[in-house]
Specification:
By secondary structure, the protein is mainly alpha-helical. Helix content is about 40%, strand content about 10%.
Amino acid sequence: MKTVKNILLAALVLTGVSCKKFLEEKPTGFIKPGTPLSGTKVAHAFANGCYEDLQGFLAGQDGSYGGNTYNLMEFMTGKANSDLGQTGYVTFQNLSYGATSFYVDTWWRRLFQGVGACNSALENLPNVTDVPDADKTNMLAEAHALRALYYFWLVRMYGAVPMVTTVPKTADETYVARTPAKDIYDKIIIPDLLEAEKSTLPWSDNTGHISMAAVQSILADVYLTYAGAAINGGATNYAEAAKHAKLAIDNGGASLFTEYRDMINPANKNKGEFIFQVQYDASIPSNNPLTALLIPNYSGISQYSDEYGSVYPTNQFIASFPAGDKRVQERQFFFTKYKSKSGTDTITFRHPYIYKYFDSSAVVNTAKSNLNYTLYRLADVYLMYAEASNRAEGGPNADAIKYVNAIRARAKLAPIGALGQAAFEQEVWLQRYYELCFENKMWFDMIRTRKVHNDVTGAWDNFIGHKTVFNATFAEKQLLFPLPKQETDVNPAILPNNPGF
């Protein structure tokens, strides 16, 4: 989606953050504060502004060569490594990170920028005239859903955070203390999503906007997390998670891709298995950075000037896949060799690398990836439904088994038969590990279940006390990230920091 930049800038000026006299000039191309807001373009500028900081999910890290916010969630799992010391991966492998470490501050800043854009839209859209009410309702639904999504990430990462639902008009209004995570769920995240659910958003949207299937998928994820260890919401919330996942499955029109490689075909953006993605376009500077970040370090296989090898799987994680699993075969989710840039020979890498974000056109020709970044796809929602319904009903129902077997079938694994509740749950967890690996899902699964799959023993370890293959042991302090020092310095009201930091 492309926003008319001048209109968006004008809209942002109206949020109340503006410079007095603006350099004593009388600029053109801006709407003065207090000017009546009118027209569909202005309304869309506010709504589309809510999406901009979704690209913060793949934001570069200042001062870190090859660093990206994406890296953090993978380094923390203990199932990822890096070829680049500049990414700061060692501090996350040995769990010595703190309030000034890479990524912690970037995530906080970008997520709250997203919240701010949504608050601006929610305040200003009702005042925009000459827009059909139905259109305005749906744009407000987009803003509610995206604010919920930004806050959902914030509470899972940091726990209690400032609850900001309006645009600050003075500097003093930015010094806000933290609100417990449960209250953020109860007062913002869930109400925002339920409000979005009341709209007439289409069930699917191949332009990249929030659809009703996306709203239901986020609701399923939120209720599943709320039911789990962080909030301990219990059976009622597992039932809610299952209900909303089923609505997305039955009405969203999504279907599993036949081949895994279909997920790295730019022609399939916002289609097929994809329910909600962060939008990228190779024709503009903000093309998806993951293709370059994950190319084997200085391998000479691509047109990129830098091949980072920023994140790659541990050998133990690769070895943990069951025999015959297609996902771990060459050029499915991973790869171990590729033709050289000259095309005259084949380069064999030192270890497997991630193929999930490999844009072949960008690698061979353009050095500009046209892939989107996926936040929700059907396989994820299948597994959310399977886990939630199993918990809510005391065992797996026929649909839960069918969805798990659909994922196993694509992986060329035999179907599962009758399983008890606990065994089925562990099967679902394992499929989430393998199917959704390196999609920034695993860390949050570890936190909400308080379990970690041990790639060496095959057991499910308790989160607290689990020793990674890097000989680091998870402790209670790992359940939340520290508040960034740059934030606590300017707003001491958010102190004390999270336990252990």
